[in-house]
Amino acid sequence: MKHVALLAAFLLIAGPAAAQSTGKPAPWGPGADDAAFAQMLKASFKDKGIAKLDRLNQDETQAFCSDPGTASGPASAARREKIEAANLATVKWPSDGKWLGDWREGEKIAQSGRGNTWSDKADQPNGGNCYNCHQITAEEISHGTIGPSLLGYGKMRGQGEDVLKATWAKIYNAKSSNACSNMPRAGHMGILGEAQIKHLMALLLDPQSSVNK
Amino acid sequence: MDRVSMGIAAFLAVVAAFATAAYAQKDKAQEGIEAYREALQDGNPAELYEATGEELWKKPAGPKNATLEACDLGLGAGVVKGAYARLPRYFADTDKVQDLESRLLTCMSTLQGIDTKPYVEAAFGTPPKEDMNALAAFVSGQSKDIPAAVTPTHPKEQAMYELGKRMFFYQGGPYDFACATCHGQEGMRIRMQELPYISSNKGAAAGWTSWPAYRVSSGQMWSMQWRLNDCFRQQRFPEPVYASDATVALSMYMAANALGATMKTPGIKR
Amino acid sequence: MTQHWMERRPMERRQVLTFVGALAAAGIVVPRAAFANWDKAAFEAKTLDDALKALGAGSPANSGDVQIVASDIAENGAVVPIQAVSKLPNTERIAILVEKNPNMLAAAYDIGPDTVPDVTARIKMGQTSNVLVVVKADGKFYSAAKEIKVTLGGCGG
Amino acid sequence: MGNPMKIRAASKDGVTEIKVLMSHEMETGQRKDASGAVVPAWFINEVTAKLDGKTVLQAQWGPSVSKNPYLAFKVKGGKAGDKVSVTWVDNKGDTRTDEATVT
Asked: Which stretches of B24-123 are assigned E, i.e. beta strand?
């Protein structure tokens, strides 16, 4: 797992500050009750299936975003930029220079929310969870609203290189452009592989895709 | 108008019409779902579990062959009416803040002499843990139509509330999820499901006052502990220990935020 | 078609899938203490025509006096509330059928002379489908149909 | 035997409304348990409801009636104090009868 190494790098750079407040005294949250909180976490969870206790260990991004009041404030602007840059640096671009796969496969991945829970097996491909939060095609009425609607995504934007890159980066590591985005870092965290991301790219950008019809 | 701007105007008109159609469809879908939920309200199978729970409450069991009828849920020994609306709370005898289910374990242990470890460790919905769902249905049903009245006053209650709040925002796991990822904004939906914004009174009320609930999708009665357990599963976290402090703390956060809202327990859900 | 593959509890998912499978499977167990009335042929019919034939309904006439009160969308196919109402005098029987369930007939109600022909049931639906209510009144058959969409909402929790 | 039913019967303006919740798995016959074994079909297939000893409704059900079935219907007549009795029989021959009083 390469991202573990990256997380380690984050922690080396950030040091213990990652789990501490950003200066402003807070009545709760990081810094206020660290010992009690750490003890509670430790006593309250256990390994189950593929979901092990190490999932509770935060990287710098997660620690920063776990105190949303501070993280979203003007005083944290520089910190947000730093975190976005570090996340952008994790993005691996398509190895063969091809951006788009098959949009129909992309639709299947977007529909699937399978993967990474303690009741999932590790040997099956993960879904993208996309419909949980986004409207994507007009046909699927059962879609979430946590993320913006992606209806007509490619039609509005075209397929310029800047669009391809921005879209790829957003899927690969959503925190590269918004430090505390609610969207998982699909590529960086190993949720989706390169081929799957290409299929999602096609779903969003292929003129034939039902997203753009 | 030249041809280009006419083209753009036509395009925009199409986009607008399309967006409106999609919007209208969404509203209609939402209406349908609301009508569906309304139709479920009459005849909630949770009542069947309440009856089972009442039986369990009154049946002598365990090495001490005692019933749970002397259990102190916070309003004095044996008082069930209204007790759920005031949980979680601090209990002097255990020197802990407890939610309903952790308190039930205490009573089973002290009054009945039951070893509660199998209850803690069993999977939800399987023996002996399934008893906890029935008991939760029964006890929560005795607070139906009563306002939620949890106000952290004891220092340990206040500490628990703060820990619950921090737990609510704590991100982790491969998806960076916290409770707040889904429940930290007003008016959001996952798929077709509205997500209560737990940090607000209205949102906390929507969540807190409707669990335990009968789940029609699985035909199961779910206690709040089961509800939270499955939230953490979806969050891609490791499994919370049954009746552990993290779960009690989250319940304290929700219950206190829901102050004043009328309990509709046990509920019925998709 | 709104069915999708959201991640959900394996048991719940299995329940939806196996429900369809179960209905498709040949053997609905024959009741041991068989109730004389249980209409095996009607419940085991695999096509709408066969089910209607087994009920003695042939091709029932569409009637505005037969009403289906149900939401347009079911948030979960495991429980779909259906209220079947007949405004026809001398209604003897009300049957509820789901066109896309492998076995269409879900329930049949014999209505006593003093009973209001208005029954509420909860049925399983494997997918979006027309629901059919067939009424026998004065020896004749009438029907009404309504499409109910089955969605799987939520994140599986 | 199964668990008790929940029966509610209320008379209003000369019509008695009867609502029944039954505790039953309504197994379809192909669900597999955790060990992969098929759970046999097991469902209520007959329900008889009586008001004051007179049969007012008979239902026949297949396995596509939902788990923990709900049944609601109305009868002309009936008054507070009348007895309602509901009997179900399932495909294993198991049966249960419960009673309630009209309010």
From this structure: 89-91, 96-98
The 3-state DSSP class for residue B68 equals coil
A22 lies in a domain?
A: yes
- B231 is known as an active-site residue: yes
Helix/strand/coil for C73: strand
Spatial neighbors of A57 by CB under 8 A, at least 6 apart, are B172
pTM of the predicted structure, to 2 decimals = 0.85
| A13 found inside a domain | yes
C74: nearest CA partner in chain A: A142
> Which residues, listed in sequence order, are joined to residue A51 by a DSSP beta bridge?
A48
Question: Would you state the torsion angle of the CA atoms of residues B128, B132, B138, B139, taken in this order, to the nearest 10 degrees?
Answer: 140
- Tens of pLDDT, residue by residue over A37-65, are 999 999 999 999 999 999 999 999 999 99
Any D CB within 8 A of C80 CB: yes
Q: What counts of helices (H) and strands (E) characterise chain D?
A: 0, 7
Q: Are residues A49 and A136 in the same domain?
A: no
Q: Which domain holds residue B216?
A: 46-269
Yes or no, beta carbons of A140 and C152 under 8 Å apart: no
- Residue pointed to by tokens 């402090």: B245
Same domain, B9 and B72: no
Cα separations (Å) of C122 from B8, C111, D45? 51, 18, 14
Q: Residue A196's domain spans which residues?
A: 103-205
Give me the number of domains chain D comprises.
1
Domain count, chain A: 2
Touching subunits for chain C (3+ Cβ pairs under 8 A): A, B, D
Instruction: Report the relative pairing of strands C140-150 and C73-74 from DSSP bridges.
Output: parallel
* Tokens (6 digits) for A103: 């949009």
Tokens encoding A109: 């991945």
CATH of the domain at D52: 2.60.40.10
A10 contacts A86 by C-beta, under 8 angstroms: yes
- ipTM score for this prediction: 0.82
Same domain, B5 and B99: no
* Mean pLDDT to the nearest integer, A148-175: 97
Size of interface A-C (CB pairs under 8 A): 39
Residues A58, A130 within the same domain: no
Does the domain at C10-150 match CATH 2.60.40.1120? Answer given as: no
CB contact (8 A) between residue A131 and residue B195: no
Are B117 and B247 in a shared domain?
yes
Mean pLDDT of B201-213: 96
* Predicted confidence (pLDDT) per residue in A100-118, tens digit: 999 999 999 999 999 999 9
Rounded distance between C-alpha atoms, residue B248 and residue B162, angstroms? 12
Asked if A46 and B238 come within 8 Å (Cβ–Cβ), the reply is yes
Residue C70: closest CA among chain B residues belongs to which residue?
B36
CA distance B84 to B188: 28
